[in-house]
Design goal:
With about 350 residues, the protein is mainly beta. It has a single domain, classed as Beta-galactosidase, Chain A, domain 5 (Distorted Sandwich). Helix content is about 5%, strand content about 40%. It has a 9-stranded antiparallel beta sheet. A 6-stranded antiparallel beta sheet has the order 17-26-25-22-19-20, with no helix packed on it. Strands 1-2-3-4-5 form a 5-stranded antiparallel beta sheet.
C-alpha cells in the first residue's frame, strides 16, 4: 500500500438508536474496495471490476445507517448470538432450559428482533496502513434469553490480491451457545436478478427442512435433486423447481453440509456471473453454508435480486447433539473464518 494514502478511512454514516455510526473504507491497493459499518458490523459495499475493468458494487446495501436500522432482511449484517433458526425458541444446556424470543413463526431467528445485526458495534483500526478494521460487541448475560456475558469480535481485512478475510471470534464467562454468520447479499452483475448467475457448492449433502424451516432428523444426499450444485448450475434452473423443499422455501433457503473437516479453511462455493464475468470464490472453516436466493426481498430491492452464502453452523444445533457443537464456555472460545476472493473471467 502506498505510504501517501491510508488503507483505512472513516466517515460519518448517520444516526442509530444507540448513537452515531461511522463507515470505514478499506483500500489495500488492489482492484477491490470495501466499506463496512459500525452498525450491525455490516458489509455496506464491495466494489470489484468486471472482465473489462468496470467497477460495480456487488453487494446490496443502504447509503446510510438509517436504512439498516429499519431493515427487516438482515442486509449485509453479522447475525447473532445465533444465526439461523432455533426450534420453538428454546434449548437445553446442562440441566437448564433457556427460552428465547420466537420472531420467525414458532422459531427463534438470527438472535431475535434485537440481535447483533441491530446493534452499534465498537470499531478499532489497529494500523491505518493496513486495510483492516475490527468491530467488538458486548452481549450481557440474559441478552435475548442467552446465558453468559459474551464478547464478540468481527474483523474485516482486505488484501492486495483482492481477498476479503472475515474473522469471527467470541469468548464467554459461562456455558452458552453462539453461531455468528455473515448475511451479505451478493449480486455480481451489480443490479437486476441473479437467476442467470451460476453457482457451485462443495457439498454432497444438505439439510431437508419442515414447514417452519427447521431441519428434519436426517441429512440428505444432493444427488438427483435440484440441490445438487457440485457442478456449476444456473440459479434460475433450480429456484423454480417443483421439488417440495424448494416450494416451501419459495426458492433456495437451505443449509448445505460443506465437504471436508469443520475447522479447516476449505472451499465452500464458486459464484459466476456470465454477463459481467465477475467471480466470487468463498472459503470457510464453518461446517455449513445457508444458500438463500432473496426469496422475500421487496422494494427498493428486486425479488431474487441477490444470493446470500451464509457460512455458519447448522440450524437448531443446540437441540441436535448429532451436529457439530455450538457450545462456548470459558475454556472453549469461538473462532471461525471466511474468505471472499473476487476475480473476473477472460
Amino acid at each position: 500500500m502506498s505510504g501517501d494514502r491510508p488503507a483505512v478511512t472513516a466517515e460519518a454514516f448517520g444516526d442509530t438508536p444507540e448513537g452515531p455510526a461511522s463507515l470505514y473504507r478499506l483500500n489495500a491497493g488492489g482492484r477491490c474496495r470495501v466499506a463496512v459499518s459500525e452498525f450491525g458490523a455490516a458489509l455496506v459495499s464491495l466494489e470489484t471490476p468486471d472482465r473489462d475493468g468496470r467497477l460495480a458494487n456487488v453487494v446490496l446495501g443502504y447509503d446510510a445507517a438509517a436504512g439498516y436500522v429499519g431493515d427487516g432482511a438482515s442486509m449485509g449484517i453479522v447475525v447473532g448470538r445465533y444465526g439461523n433458526r432455533i426450534a420453538n425458541g428454546r434449548f437445553e444446556l446442562g440441566d437448564k432450559v433457556y427460552e428465547l424470543e420466537c420472531n420467525n413463526g414458532p422459531n427463534h431467528l438470527h438472535g431475535g428482533s434485537n440481535g447483533f445485526g441491530r446493534r452499534l458495534w465498537r470499531a478499532e483500526v489497529p494500523d491505518e496502513s493496513i486495510a483492516r478494521v475490527r468491530f467488538s460487541l458486548t452481549s450481557p448475560d440474559g441478552d435475548a434469553g442467552y446465558p453468559g456475558n459474551l464478547e464478540a469480535t468481527v474483523e474485516y481485512r482486505l488484501s492486495e490480491d483482492d481477498g476479503l478475510t472475515v474473522t469471527f471470534a467470541a469468548t464467554c464467562d459461562a456455558a452458552s451457545v453462539v453461531n455468528l454468520a455473515h448475511h451479505a447479499y451478493f449480486n455480481l452483475a451489480g443490479s437486476g436478478s441473479v437467476l442467470d448467475h451460476e453457482l457451485t457448492v462443495h457439498a454432497e449433502r444438505f439439510l431437508p427442512v419442515d414447514g417452519t424451516m427447521i431441519p428434519l432428523p436426517e441429512m440428505a444426499d444432493v444427488a438427483d435433486t435440484p440441490f445438487d450444485f457440485r457442478e456449476r448450475a444456473r440459479l434460475g434452473e433450480r429456484v423454480g423447481s417443483p421439488h417440495p423443499l424448494m416450494v416451501v422455501a419459495k426458492g433456495l433457503d437451505h443449509c448445505f453440509v460443506v465437504d471436508g473437516d469443520p475447522g479447516s479453511l476449505r472451499p465452500v462455493a464458486h459464484l459466476h456471473d456470465p454477463q459481467s464475468g465477475r467471480i466470487l470464490d468463498l472459503s470457510s472453516t464453518q461446517p455449513g453454508v445457508q444458500v438463500y436466493t432473496a426469496n422475500h426481498l421487496g422494494p427498493p430491492f428486486e425479488h431474487h435480486g441477490a444470493i446470500c452464502l451464509e457460512t455458519q453452523h447448522f440450524p437448531d444445533s443446540p437441540n441436535r447433539p448429532d451436529y457439530p457443537s455450538t457450545r462456548i464456555d470459558p475454556e472453549r472460545p469461538y473462532e471461525e473464518t471466511m474468505v471472499l476472493r473476487l476475480s473476473a473471467d477472460g
